C-alpha cells in the first residue's frame, strides 16, 4: 500500500494505463446512464412547460397538502427516532441485561423486512376487523387511513437508522469517560449532556439525516395504511404516483422534483457530516 | 481518611475475582496493589471508587459505610489507565470538569474555578498545555492532565489504575519520580494498581501483593522482598530456584546442597521446599556434585548457568557475578551453596501454571 503513495521515480517502468482508463470510463458511463440522466430528466420534465406551469403545479392544493403532510410526518418521526435510537444505543452499549441480544436483532428487523409487510401488519392490527380495531372504534380513535397510521409505519421503517450509526461508536468508545465523569461527581444528565452527547453528536446527526431521507421518501408501507384519500392522507411519494396515474405528467414531475431536491439537500448534508465524523 | 475493607468478595458469573479481601489503609498512606493480571487488583480499586460493587463484605471510610454511597458522592479522584480524558474539551475544561458539575449552591464562581485550574496546571508543570485538546498531547502529558482532573475536586483519596501502564520505559521512570513528589506534596491518601514490582516498590509506603483474588502479603517493600510470605509472592517477585529439601531440627538438608549459611527456621521436621533467588547461590566445583552445568552464557556483568539436576531432572538457572565465578565449563559437575533463601512447607503454594490459567479465564470473559 505505502509504496503506491509515493510517486515513482523518473526511471520506473511505465505500466500500461489502458485497462484502468477503460474501467474508469465504464463506471462513469454507467453512473451517468443510471443516476445522473434520470435525475436531470426529472427536472427537465418538471420545467418543460415553463416556470409558471411548474409553480402552478406545486401550488395545486393536493400537492401542497402532500408536501405539508410529508414534512409533518418527518418532523414527528425523526425526533422520536433520535430519542429511541440514543436510548437503545445507550442501553445496548452500557448495560448487560436479559434480552440484550434479542433487542439487538429486533432493531435490525425493519431493515430486512419489506415496508409493505409493516404496512399490512399495522392494517391487521389496527384495522376495523383487526386485533385492536373494535376497541379503537369504540374509543373513536382513528389510526388507519389517517396521519397516526402513516407516522407509525414511517417510524417502523426508519427506526434502525439512528441506532445503527450511534451504537458502534458508543461500543468503540467504551464507558471509561462516563465512569471518569461519575467519579468527578457528575449526575446522569450532566454525563449525558457533557460527555456522551458531544462524543456521538456527528454520528447522531448523520443517523438523523439518513432517517429524514427515508421518512420523506417512504412509499410502500405508507401506501397500505394511508388509504390514499386525496388532500388528506397523501404524502409526497403517494401524491406523485396519483398524479402519474391521472396522466398529469407535468404535475407528477413537479412534485417529484421537490422530493428529489429534498434528497439532494440530504445528500449534501450527509457528505459534509461524513467529513466531520 | 482511614479505609477499612473486610471480607470483600466479588464474582463475575462463575469466576471469583475477589475471595475475601481484608485491608486497612491509613490517612496519608501511599499503597500499591501489586499482582499479575487476573489477581483482582483493578476490581478492588473500582469497588473502592464505587464503579463496581462487591457481592459481600464491608467497605468503610472514616467509619462510614461506603457501600451505601454512590460514586458521585464519594469524592475520590480516579485516574484511568488510558486516562479517559474528554476528547472534545481543552485541557483547561477537562481539569475544571469536576468543579463545573457541582450543584449550583456548592459550585465555585467561574473565576474561582479558573484560578484553581491555573494553580493545578502550574503545580503539574503543564501551564503551556491549557488550551490544547487531548489528541494533541503525548502520553506523559495526558497522564498529568488526568491527574490534574482528578485532583481538582480536592479528593481525600486518590485512586490510580496502572498509572504508567500506557507509557514507554523512559517516560515511565521520569514520571514515577515526579509522581512520588506530587503525591507527597498533595498529602492525599493514595492507592494505585500495578503489575510492575519495581514501580510498586519505588513509589509505595506499603505494598499489597495480590494473587488470584486474595491478598498474599502486605508489607513495606523491603519486607516483602526479603521475606516473601508465600511461594506465590516469592515467584511473583522474580525468578526462583525451587529445590525439595528435608527439614531436621530447623535445618534444611538435601544431597548436593551446602546449606550451612542458611539460618535455622521454626518449622516442623519433614519435607519442605527451598526457594532461592538465582543470584543468591554460589556454585562450587565438585566431581561428585549433584548438578551438571548444561551451558554458560554471559550477560556482561553476570554469568548465567543453566544446570541439570541429576536427582529431579529439573533445569534450574543460577546467576553469579562474572568476577567471582569459579572457572566453569559446560559439562562440569558442581554442588550448590545457597547464601539466602526461604523455606515453605512442601505442600504449600499454587503451582506457577495456575496464574496463566486465571489470566486466560479473565480474558475469555471479556
UniProtKB/TrEMBL annotation, chain A:
Domain of life: Bacteria
A matching Pfam family: BPD_transp_1
Compartment list: Cell membrane
Membrane topology designation: Multi-pass membrane protein
Residues annotated as transmembrane: 22-44, 64-91, 103-125, 145-163, 203-229, 249-269
Main location: membrane
The keyword Methyltransferase appears for this protein: no
Gene Ontology CC annotations of this record: plasma membrane
Gene Ontology terms for molecular function: ABC-type sulfate transporter activity
UniProt keyword Glycoprotein present: no
Location of the ABC transmembrane type-1 domain: 67-270
Keyword terms: Membrane, Sulfate transport, Transmembrane, Transmembrane helix, Transport
Quaternary structure note: The complex is composed of two ATP-binding proteins (CysA), two transmembrane proteins (CysT and CysW) and a solute-binding protein (CysP).
Cited function: Part of the ABC transporter complex CysAWTP (TC 3.A.1.6.1) involved in sulfate/thiosulfate import. Probably responsible for the translocation of the substrate across the membrane.
Protein name per the record: Sulfate ABC transporter permease subunit CysW
Gene: cysW
TrEMBL record, chain B:
Pfam families, per database record: ABC_tran
Coiled-coil regions, chain positions: none
Classification via Gene3D superfamilies: P-loop containing nucleotide triphosphate hydrolases
Keywords, in A-Z order: ATP-binding, Nucleotide-binding, Transport
Any GO molecular function: ATP binding
One GO process term, biological-process aspect: quaternary ammonium group transport
Keyword Nucleotide-binding: yes
Domain ABC transporter stretches: 3-237
PROSITE patterns: ABC_TRANSPORTER_1, ABC_TRANSPORTER_2
Name of the protein in question: ATP-binding cassette domain-containing protein
Organism: Paenirhodobacter populi
Species classification: Bacteria, Pseudomonadati, Pseudomonadota, Alphaproteobacteria, Rhodobacterales
